[in-house]
Amino acid sequence: MGMGLVALMGAAATVAGCSEDLESDIGSQSNPNSQVQLAAQVGYPHRIFNKAISGEPPSNAMYCAVGAGVAMVLIQSMSASPLLAIAVGAFVAALLNGVFSTTSYMGRNASQTRFNQYVYLDVLRNHILGIMGHAYITTFCIVGLSYVMWNQDLINHPFPFPVIAMIWGLAVGAIGSSTGDVHYGAEREFQDFKFGAGLNAADSGNITRYAEAGIRSSMDNAWFCSKFGGPATGIAFGMVVFLDNWRSTAFSGWISVAVGTAIVILLILYNRQIEIYARKKYGPYPEYSGDIEA
Amino acid sequence: MTDITVGLMLTDNLPSIIGIILGGICIAVGVHFVPVGGAPAAMAQATGIGTGTVQLAAGSGLTGLLAAGYMYMTLSTLPSGVIVEPGISQIILICATGAVGAMIMISVTMLVGNWVYIYGVGVPPASAKKDYDPITGDSQAPYVAAGTVGQGMPTVCFVSGAMGGFLGGLGGSLIYCMLMWVNGDPAISSIFAIGVFLVNAVLPSYNIQGTIEGFHDPKFKRVPKAILACFIASLLCGIIAVMIPGAAMIGGA
């Protein structure tokens, strides 16, 4: 396995991570969904897209496994070109995403009519293609890098093609849910509050509903998160795919284990550095009234 | 398949069943190490990673499984192309590879998560379960935002998470190796390993009840209960894993 291939996989993973996070931001999937769901119940009806198909890891694992399954059938039984087969597989996965997103949005909002939260058909129409488009990009990239791992002439990984895609789908969902979603859930959803003030539990559900101009839509949220949360997720997933494959490619046996351990130690040290930076930059909270010195 | 055949199959594969149990226990303990903040962490209302226990443990552990599966194939294929069964020393190397793969995944996730907390949300990482970070000695309480139970991943949580990833990857890889001993088919073994992994990741989440900061969290003391539960669950999984894929491989049913 050449370094070029590892770099290509890392690049595909970076794009996949970014689009996965933006797809979940447009749809308000995963953890920030709790606030979108709560908003109407505490008196703040909104026009934010609300889909909670499942946690991001299982849903992305499903899309990627479906995409890889379709691609595998096309490649093996119809001798289709791998690129075309992956594109068709990703398209089928995107359609599946569209079905789940539509039923999820309508079901969620229809159940909240008593809180003046209605099903807005224009919201559904305007957002669904954006969600499906991002899901297509994510699935295409992950199925593509899984194909590189599975192909006998490239990496020849022993796991079946759909299983590899499922595992990477699970990983990208876990990473997107842990990194980029925080930018949406903790910052964009509560932009009315002071930057860095944290979100008091008493303010839960009081999401920002007005945009720079007019009423805020989920497209506005994707625009904002594409500046930081999305790319950060892409970097995270790209780093995971690249670093894990790089150590196995450039080194073998116990040396690759040692290199992996060294990477983890470096990450711990770097994390400590940014922790110190944040403590110095922001300082303790002025509201703190305890007796522990900062 | 007669009772005698079943008994013989279980006896012959006893080391594999024991390995699956050990792997399951590693996963169960590993899940407790991972700092999981759940949905509140995604709104910077709780310390830890902003996603669910099982999803995170599975995401990291199964990423390690991919690395372990590849290493297993490499070590079991001789230069002449002949496939041999890896020995104990090679199994240790495979498990170490899987464990390090999972550590890399979870460490990168925590690091980038902290980027978002620090640069995107503007909050310093702080634990609400301890007044001082047990590793660095830094004070925590003054840095916890009002009305929250901490935010981000301070050093203690980061180190604990890396240890959790290590154990999760180790357990998943060990289970895969044991299943490969039983049936020798990577497809069946990988799918069963994912299944056994998820069983052992879900059970401890009842202990955690949504959020845990790591080994310094008071909830960590509940680990023995999870070990017992996962011992029983892994034993059943091991028996099923040996009988179903094992029977398929010898042509029985």
UniProtKB/TrEMBL annotation, chain A:
Keywords tagged on the record: Cell membrane, Membrane, Methanogenesis, Methyltransferase, One-carbon metabolism, Transferase, Translocase, Transmembrane, Transmembrane helix
First-level EC class: translocase
Transmembrane region(s): 83-107, 128-149, 161-184, 224-243, 249-270
Catalytic reactions on record: 5-methyl-5,6,7,8-tetrahydromethanopterin + coenzyme M + 2 Na(+)(in) = 5,6,7,8-tetrahydromethanopterin + methyl-coenzyme M + 2 Na(+)(out)
One GO-annotated biological process of the protein: one-carbon metabolic process
A Pfam family that the UniProt record links to this protein: MtrE
GO cellular component entries: cytoplasm; plasma membrane; vesicle membrane
Cellular localisation: Cell membrane
Superkingdom of source: Archaea
Pathway: One-carbon metabolism; methanogenesis from CO(2); methyl-coenzyme M from 5,10-methylene-5,6,7,8-tetrahydromethanopterin: step 2/2
GO molecular function: tetrahydromethanopterin S-methyltransferase activity
E.C. number(s) listed in UniProt: 7.2.1.4
Membrane topology: Multi-pass membrane protein
General function of this protein: Part of a complex that catalyzes the formation of methyl-coenzyme M and tetrahydromethanopterin from coenzyme M and methyl-tetrahydromethanopterin. This is an energy-conserving, sodium-ion translocating step.
Subunit and interaction comment: The complex is composed of 8 subunits; MtrA, MtrB, MtrC, MtrD, MtrE, MtrF, MtrG and MtrH.
Family: Belongs to the MtrE family.
Database matches in HAMAP family: MtrE (MF_01098)
NCBIfam families: mtrE (TIGR01113)
Protein's name in the database: Tetrahydromethanopterin S-methyltransferase subunit E
Chain's gene name: mtrE
TrEMBL record, chain B:
Transmembrane segments: 17-37, 49-71, 91-120, 156-181, 187-206, 226-250
Known partners and oligomeric status: The complex is composed of 8 subunits; MtrA, MtrB, MtrC, MtrD, MtrE, MtrF, MtrG and MtrH.
Record pathway: One-carbon metabolism; methanogenesis from CO(2); methyl-coenzyme M from 5,10-methylene-5,6,7,8-tetrahydromethanopterin: step 2/2
Pfam family, any one: MtrD
Gene this chain is encoded by: mtrD
Subcellular location: Cell membrane
Keywords: Cell membrane, Membrane, Methanogenesis, Methyltransferase, One-carbon metabolism, Transferase, Translocase, Transmembrane, Transmembrane helix
Primary location: membrane
Catalytic reaction annotation: 5-methyl-5,6,7,8-tetrahydromethanopterin + coenzyme M + 2 Na(+)(in) = 5,6,7,8-tetrahydromethanopterin + methyl-coenzyme M + 2 Na(+)(out)
Domain of life: Archaea
Role this protein plays: Part of a complex that catalyzes the formation of methyl-coenzyme M and tetrahydromethanopterin from coenzyme M and methyl-tetrahydromethanopterin. This is an energy-conserving, sodium-ion translocating step.
UniProt-recorded name of the protein: Tetrahydromethanopterin S-methyltransferase subunit D
GO BP annotations listed: methanogenesis, from carbon dioxide; methylation; one-carbon metabolic process
Cellular-component GO terms for this entry: cytoplasm; plasma membrane; vesicle membrane
Sequence similarity: Belongs to the MtrD family.
UniProt topology in membrane: Multi-pass membrane protein
Record GO terms (molecular function): tetrahydromethanopterin S-methyltransferase activity
Protein EC: 7.2.1.4
